[in-house]
Specification:
Layout lengths: L6 H9 L14 H13 L5 E5 L5 H9 L4 E5 L1
Parallel strand pairs: 1-2
Length: about 80
Amino acid sequence: MSRLTTPEFWDNLYEGWLPDPFDPTNWREYVSIQLVQLLTSLGLAGKRVLEVGGGDARLLAWLAKQHPTSKFVVLD
């Protein structure tokens, strides 16, 4: 079976979607900011995180960039 895409395709795509950091003055980011604060307060180092219904997975992609020792998986 041949691949439909490559990891490089997704790396390049997500790089343009990931704000660093989220803008706390942007009301559209409110839920994302609250989730980031909650998840980081639990401690993400070395953890496994599953998001169900993640859509474009922007939030988890950002968290994965911030916590490289953790494993993040998104099901949509």
